[in-house]
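How a chain folds remains the central question behind the approach discussed here. This step matters because it turns folding into a mapping between discrete strings. The sequence in question and its structure tokens are set out directly beneath this paragraph.
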Amino acid sequence: MKVTAAFALPHDHYDWNQGLYQLAMVTRNCLVDNDHENFRKYNVMLCNYAREIFEIPNLMIIEWKPSNDIAFIVLDGTPDGCCHTAYDIGYRHLPEEYEGEDGRYTIPLIHSQEELDDTLAHIHSMNILHKLEDEK
């Protein structure tokens, strides 16, 4: 699996979609509490909800950050009904564009609807490109 895009919604976007943030926090709390069964269940629910609101079919990994930001790593695969985390791919598999000068990877924050629209358009374009490559 390859990373198609990665982005983060800052905590000040909470009012934009409270359900997304609340579900992300519940998912994170299950992980912190070592409740792996509920973590898997809520993580799949969270990813399905994000796919629905962003209207993208991709497999994705979502992480709630201690800063109350939510990071999204969108992969080129399709959902398989399993729970996936960033450990599945490792941050080292993020494209070079996310690597900072210090060698650490950072996921850019989306600060406007226009930036989100551009990111989602990029994901749709990459999906079309991957589909065309698969058909060859």
